[in-house]
Amino acid sequence: MAPKRKRTSPATSYQVFLSFRGPDTRQGFTDVLYHALVDAGIRVFRDNEEIRKGEYIGEEILRAIEDSRIFVPIFSRTYAFSKWCLIELAKMVESKEKSSGSKRILPIFYDASVNDVKLKTELYTEALSIHREKFSPNTVQQWEKTLREAGKIKGWELKDKGHAEFAKEFVRKVSVELKVKKKYVTGSLVERIDEQDALMSLLDLKSSHDVRLVWIHGMGGIGKTTLAQAVFNRLCDHFGGSSFLLDMRETANRKGIEYLQRQLLQDLGVKSADVTDENDGIWMISEKLQNRKVLVIFDDVDDLEQIGKLAGEAGWFGEGSRIIITSRNKNVPVFEGGRVEILEAEPMKFEESLLLFSRHAFGNENPPEDFRDLSEEVVRITGGLPLALEVVGSQLRTSYEHRDRVHWDHMIGALQKIPARKVQDRLKISYDALDWEAKQIFLDIACFFINEEKTKAIYMWQSCGFEPYLAVKELVDASLIKLADENKFSMHDQLRDLGRKIVRDERLKDPGKPCSRIWMHEDALKVLREEEGKENVEMLSLSYNELSKDFILTKQELKSFKNLRFLSLCGSNFLGDLEHALPKLIWLSWRSCPDVFQGTNLYLKNLIVLDLSRSLISETWKGWSQIGMCKELKVLDLTSCHRLTKTPDLSVCTKLERLILNDCVNLVEIDHSVGTLKCLKYLNASGCHYLRDVPEVICSLDGVEEIVMVAKGNFRDILKLPDSIGTLSRLKHLSVSLARSTPPNSLGYLKSLVKLDLSWSKMAELPESIGGLVKLEYLSLHFCRGIKELPDSMRDLKSLAELDISMSGITRLPSIKYLQELKVINMRGSVIEWIPISIRKLKKLEKLDIQDCDHLRYIPTAMDPSLLTVSCSAPEMGFGEQRTRIDWETHLESQREMGRAPCCDKANVKKGPWSPEEDAKLKDYIEKHGTGGNWFALPRTAGLKRCWKSCQLRYKEMGRAPCCDQANVKKGPWSAEEDAKLNDYIEKHGTGVNWITLPRTAGLKRCWKSCRLRWLNYLRPNIKHGEFSDVEDRVICTLFATIGSRWSIIAAQLPGRTTNGIKNYWNMKLKKKLMGNFYINPPGTSNLSCGLPSTPEQRHHFIAPFSPTIPTLSVPSSSTSNFYELSPFNSSSSSSAATNLQPQETLVGPINMYGHEAASCSFSDGSSVDKDHHHHQFNHHQQVPNNNLQGFSPSHHGNEILGLGDQDIINYGSNSTR
């Protein structure tokens, strides 16, 4: 084992650290780059010079450098003249060196060159000369070395690019570097929060200095993998690297431990993970990962020796690392130097089991009354195993639809005969119910096609005479297989093992013959060497790299495979005359094919699918004349054939339907013979960096249905679409990354187009003709930063169901009321400023994603109640930088209450007094889920036949939550011990907790509301304490003049400030400061009190002289309108207005500060006086007393703080003034 070493702990509170010289770039380039990164959802630390104190680098900066994964020094002309910049750079270089490759430095050369940084010019050498006069020789020498090291790193030069254009490209690069792929978890499963919390408790992320392993054990099908996937998705963003090695038992058997070691290293960012043998892998893991804080999941482990070769010691990983292992085995491995925790996966509770079963058997969350007794009996028999509940429920669904209780009785009888622990035997009941074709397809998937895309298999099955679409649907409906992301087959390991056991049992009928399907390489090698029984083999895989890469196949070994329809090879080769070999082969998967073809006469007349991906072949490969030119060929996959510069002559393949050239990075040309492929339906040339245009010849093929040419990585965009693109009358899906040129108008002629994906394109606009895409259902403009607005013709896209403008440059949407089919709008990370009021007209809208929309200022009221899913920004689990935001989710939830939920159908709900049982159900549900959930869905999920409104009213009648019982809760000041308990709980469980149950689970004898307010107003780590700045004063005054005392909205504009804090500051200080400038106590009076102005106009009169850029309010003519239109003041005379009160010339007219209609002051004796009465007491030319509001420049503070333009609309509730 490797020796233990001291480790560092790179966490990920920040992902990117920006280092720059403030006077050079802070207000320009750095600001643009910072907001571009933030808009892309990246956590960025931007150094604030105010936190630099003394002679040493601040602790906050040190921590930010250690936490970040990518360092971005912005080299400007005076960068090296700043000691702080040089200290930061030295720390960044040091942190990168310690990280063993998990951290990167991406230098930007702003207006300094690479040679300046390498100290080959006078610019930075002069800076170091100045530093030598103040600092020790060792310090300056270290800085000199750091600069030279940084100069060796390939960076980005700004040159003549605009700031925004450069920032877009840079963000794209950073996004690729930081990308973490989360694991797919099927939506039909019941989320078991208790299990997740138990696992989170054992992981104990608060303990950052140890390395911890959690061993989850339990029987197959109990939900171990699902639990690990759910927690992985919650945590993977918060580690320096993450890896999920799925189904290790199967992978190790088929590909070996070296493959798993290599995969682990690659997942965790080790680029040169060339593992030659398992000992080499052990050494690389222990050496390369020892300074990295990582999250690793090893799924389905059955051999403890495997863990010893992948995670043998805690010292192999950085401090704070967490390792989760799922296994059916109770035995725990030795984990030297680390802490081991054990979690036994428990069966589902009865209520959870019934819910899961009901989803699959009835498509609902509760069984109907006439089937409740049978449902509960099935749930009891299956013993809380999620897989069994899912499969059995799916099988019984058809019987329920026909109201066939007899079949249910038969199923229950069959299940009762099989012991609960024999899961596979119970699952086989569902397999036995399939027809013959579905069984064959199930066995093919179980043996060969798990995690494989379904399209190629469909072609093979069709060639066999099957009806694969019907069979696959039958298997999906029976929950025997799933179609995961990217349309790939997935299957539970218990079902996989069942399928393979059925295949192995074939030998019991005829012991002398091999199985019909051979997927293990040892068995395949054995069968190849034998003479007997080969005609029985239908599918064979020889794809294990280490044993098969040099294997030679001859006619002698292949001649007896009369019925082989699928052959999978990896790196092997054919040799000699192969005439009449493999006569029924339909699919040849020959990955890593060598560049020299040694066979002759290999004519595969029935070949339908040819997969040569990741091969060493070129267009001159000799194999093209034989196996590559089959007349029946329909699918040709050349993915990642890096030596290919031109596609081969394909004119013989007249039936070819799918041509895949994905990631052929050196491909320059598509051969003109492609123009003869009249059957071609699909072309994928994504990642072909040198293929500059969509080939004109493609546009002559009427049958093309899908074109995918998406650029990847450090790509060059496709320059343009040909004008003839509009002739593709059957084109349904077009995905391209375009350069600056606007797509041709002929794009609008694609009448069959259903999906248009222009993500990452650089174009500045869409053609007006896009309105002609009458069948378009999906439009993506993701990361199209050049597009600022959408054409008005968008209203003609009557079939559009999903619109993706995430991270785009679009600032506003056109009127979308005509898009009545729209279901999903994704605006995540965009610069959208307001959502049009016409969104209310979209009756089918289901999801609105406005996460990280920092510029968003307005959402219309009275949103349609069908809008049940709203994704808003919220810090997950309390990690990272938390920012104060307007609570749009709460805003929209309040709008949903304006509509009637489906559960209020009078025919289906119960009325009258509530029973104790109903009260108990409602109380239990609220205690578990809180009051912030979806009230529309509550009756169904809680098992109540009541209207949602009735449930809401009943809950209010039930009084306080249990934690608020006056006799049991503590009041008064909070102790330090209580604060610590609350802090610990939030840090562990995040801010999305159920506040009602928090006091009990956190061990606090406080009301839940008291806990929530204590956290929000006092304990949150991002709360700003101390004096308010001048800028904050101006923002408060500006917004108060516009919207009055809407303190929560004002707080959203002041990150770190709480609603209560701003309200108290206004009432106790700022309001008095403003009043003190104008209130002159009449003679003989001592106490003068004045009510605040009540109308917007009066508020403007009150504050305008101190904030001359306050927007004027113009109320729309319609009396029913519920919004204000903001238009900024003309700032031509703002400077004088800010400093001198000129009653006859100021922005607000004569010095009638509160307006004539309602302006009055009340004295302590109850009398009042008109303000105009005291006008003579002002010196019209007197300088205004210092009010901390002078210099409020309209160009810098007014609209920028509000984020509004002249046409922007913002909703503040009702037409009444505040």
TrEMBL record:
<keyword id="KW-0539">Nucleus</keyword>
<keyword id="KW-0238">DNA-binding</keyword>
<keyword id="KW-0433">Leucine-rich repeat</keyword>
<keyword id="KW-0677">Repeat</keyword>
<dbReference type="Pfam" id="PF01582">
    <property type="entry name" value="TIR"/>
</dbReference>
<dbReference type="InterPro" id="IPR035897">
    <property type="entry name" value="Toll_tir_struct_dom_sf"/>
</dbReference>
<feature type="domain" description="HTH myb-type">
    <location>
        <begin position="906"/>
        <end position="963"/>
    </location>
</feature>
<keyword id="KW-0804">Transcription</keyword>
<dbReference type="InterPro" id="IPR042197">
    <property type="entry name" value="Apaf_helical"/>
</dbReference>
<dbReference type="GO" id="GO:0005634">
    <property type="term" value="C:nucleus"/>
</dbReference>
<protein>
    <submittedName>
        <fullName>TMV resistance protein N-like isoform X1</fullName>
    </submittedName>
</protein>
<feature type="domain" description="HTH myb-type">
    <location>
        <begin position="966"/>
        <end position="1023"/>
    </location>
</feature>
<dbReference type="InterPro" id="IPR058192">
    <property type="entry name" value="WHD_ROQ1-like"/>
</dbReference>
<dbReference type="Pfam" id="PF23282">
    <property type="entry name" value="WHD_ROQ1"/>
</dbReference>
<feature type="domain" description="Myb-like">
    <location>
        <begin position="1020"/>
        <end position="1070"/>
    </location>
</feature>
<feature type="domain" description="Myb-like">
    <location>
        <begin position="906"/>
        <end position="959"/>
    </location>
</feature>
<dbReference type="InterPro" id="IPR017930">
    <property type="entry name" value="Myb_dom"/>
</dbReference>
<dbReference type="Pfam" id="PF00249">
    <property type="entry name" value="Myb_DNA-binding"/>
</dbReference>
<dbReference type="InterPro" id="IPR009057">
    <property type="entry name" value="Homeodomain-like_sf"/>
</dbReference>
<dbReference type="InterPro" id="IPR000157">
    <property type="entry name" value="TIR_dom"/>
</dbReference>
<dbReference type="GO" id="GO:0003677">
    <property type="term" value="F:DNA binding"/>
</dbReference>
<feature type="domain" description="TIR">
    <location>
        <begin position="12"/>
        <end position="178"/>
    </location>
</feature>
<dbReference type="GO" id="GO:0006952">
    <property type="term" value="P:defense response"/>
</dbReference>
<dbReference type="GO" id="GO:0043531">
    <property type="term" value="F:ADP binding"/>
</dbReference>
<dbReference type="InterPro" id="IPR002182">
    <property type="entry name" value="NB-ARC"/>
</dbReference>
<dbReference type="InterPro" id="IPR044974">
    <property type="entry name" value="Disease_R_plants"/>
</dbReference>
<feature type="region of interest" description="Disordered">
    <location>
        <begin position="1164"/>
        <end position="1187"/>
    </location>
</feature>
<feature type="domain" description="Myb-like">
    <location>
        <begin position="966"/>
        <end position="1019"/>
    </location>
</feature>
<dbReference type="GO" id="GO:0007165">
    <property type="term" value="P:signal transduction"/>
</dbReference>
<feature type="domain" description="HTH myb-type">
    <location>
        <begin position="1024"/>
        <end position="1074"/>
    </location>
</feature>
<dbReference type="InterPro" id="IPR032675">
    <property type="entry name" value="LRR_dom_sf"/>
</dbReference>
<dbReference type="Pfam" id="PF00931">
    <property type="entry name" value="NB-ARC"/>
</dbReference>
<dbReference type="InterPro" id="IPR027417">
    <property type="entry name" value="P-loop_NTPase"/>
</dbReference>
<dbReference type="InterPro" id="IPR001005">
    <property type="entry name" value="SANT/Myb"/>
</dbReference>
<keyword id="KW-0805">Transcription regulation</keyword>
